[in-house]
Amino acid sequence: MYSHSHVNRPVSQEKILNKRMTAAIIGTSLAAGLLCLNTSSAQAGTSTMTGTAAAEKAAPRPPKGARAVVRVSPNPTTRRGQKVTITGDCGGGEKLKTVMAGVNGNTVLENIRILSSDPKGFKATATLSSKIGNGVGPVFVDCGDEAGVTLLVTHV
């Protein structure tokens, strides 16, 4: 007899967030790749636009679900336990719901506190993990129907 243990099993919140974060990573990567292609082709041709205007025209809008913008300061970080500030906007999303940072089950940021969940300008603080080494780790934000990711560089 066949086992149907996978049928009607509830989906965990972690799996939902992982799907959103994967969409954010793919969308951000595609946007960055397209921006590089557009920038290099604009440099090869003759362009009369100035820097900011050309970048705004050349930069494609990220796909729906990956429009949140996230920044971490300071970046790069230089010591374990260092306090960082996470800021950004939800790109049309509801409000900041979650900030996550880690790779393969290893946390990059600890003691994450959301100070303001305003979708037009959120703010959170965290400390760099005491177990972190030199490298690069993702920092994800979940704004409901929009997600975003940036990379945090560590030199500890």
Describe it.
This protein is α+β, with helices and mostly antiparallel strands and 156 residues long. 26% of the residues lie in helices and 33% in strands. It has two helices and eight strands, in the order H-H-E-E-E-E-E-E-E-E. The chain has helices spanning 13-44, 51-58, and strands spanning 69-73, 83-89, 98-103, 106-107, 109-116, 122-128, 135-142, 147-154. The strands form two sheets. Strands 1-2-6-5 form a four-stranded antiparallel sheet, with no helix packed on it. Strands 4-3-7-8 form a four-stranded antiparallel sheet, with helices on one face. A hairpin with a 4-residue loop joins strand 7 and strand 8. The termini are far apart. Residues 1-6 and 34-49 have low confidence and may be disordered.
